[in-house]
């Protein structure tokens, strides 16, 4: 399986990192070894001094598809969860300055914890899903799927022009404003609505 991540999908987050609002989705990949299943901790890596959380809704792909049209894109995912796109911001800034790829900052082991998934049918409105991140009892990020620059269908249609989607793949759909650092000893909790779906100690 693979993990596809969308960058800059919320206007306020693009602004907070001084990035332009993109005309097309920006995406990058994380390998399977980035995945942390719900219930396991995140181990702070030695190679970074500035790891940031980015809470994101995650789509679970349920069938094979390439060149998927926007009209049928909704049939290619069956569930929505929440995950954290951990980012070594110090390394990412160096990569950006030098025009280098982002893998060392984004694709490292443990950089993609993902919650359990909620079947799509259980959402009254997929374009109005609230999600949030609480760090040590304080809400640090809040987002809503209705505020995305590129909605789920647009993301699936765009990405599948370049990369074949397969059953079991995950798509991280971008983070809202409020990203910030974590340190050892922190406790993160990611929510969809008021359901805590992912609990993650940082060790
Ligand atoms: Mg992200």
Helical content (DSSP H or I, runs of 4+): 10-25%
For the secondary structure, the number of strands is: 15
- CATH superfamily placement: Fumarylacetoacetase-like, C-terminal domain
Q: Which parts are unreliable, with pLDDT below 50 for 5 consecutive residues or more?
A: none
Element string (H = helix, E = strand): EHEEEEEEHHEEEEHEEEE
Question: Could you characterize what this model shows?
Answer:
This protein has 203 residues and is an alpha+beta fold. It has a single domain, classed as Fumarylacetoacetate hydrolase, domain 2, CATH 3.90.850.10. Helices cover 15% and strands 34% of the residues. Strands 2-1-12-5-6-9 form a 6-stranded mixed β-sheet, with helices on one face. Strands 11-10-14-15 form a 4-stranded antiparallel β-sheet, with no helix packed on it. The site of magnesium ion (MG) has 7 residues, from strand 1.
Mind sketching the topology for me?
Layout: E1 3-7, H1 11-16, E2 26-30, E3 35-37, E4 51-53, E5 55-61, E6 77-84, E7 87-88, H2 89-98, H3 103-106, E8 112-114, E9 118-119, E10 130-135, E11 138-144, H4 152-162, E12 170-172, E13 180-181, E14 187-192, E15 195-201
Parallel strand pairs: 1-12, 3-8
Antiparallel strand pairs: 1-2, 4-7, 4-13, 5-6, 5-12, 6-9, 10-11, 10-14, 14-15
Bound molecules: magnesium ion.
């Amino acid at each position: 399986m693979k993990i596809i991540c969308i960058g800059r999908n919320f206007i306020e987050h693009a602004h907070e990192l001084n990035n332009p609002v993109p005309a097309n989705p920006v995406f990058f990949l994380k390998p399977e070894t980035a995945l942390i299943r719900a219930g396991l901790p995140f181990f702070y890596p030695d190679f970074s001094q500035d790891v940031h959380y980015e809470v994101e809704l995650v789509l679970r792909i349920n069938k094979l598809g390439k060149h998927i049209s926007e009209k049928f894109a909704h049939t290619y995912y069956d569930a929505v969860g929440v995950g954290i796109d951990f980012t070594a911001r110090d390394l990412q800034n160096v990569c950006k300055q030098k025009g280098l790829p982002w893998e060392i900052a984004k694709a490292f082991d443990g950089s993609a914890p993902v919650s359990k998934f909620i079947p799509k049918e259980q959402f009254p409105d997929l374009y109005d899903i609230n999600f949030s991140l609480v760090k040590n009892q304080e809400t640090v990020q809040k987002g809503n799927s209705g505020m995305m620059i590129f909605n789920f269908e647009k993301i699936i249609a765009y990405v599948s022009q370049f990369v074949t989607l397969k059953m079991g793949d995950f798509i991280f759909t971008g983070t809202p404003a409020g990203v910030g650092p974590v340190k050892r000893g922190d406790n993160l909790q990611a929510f969809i609505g008021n359901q805590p779906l992912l609990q993650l100690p940082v060790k």
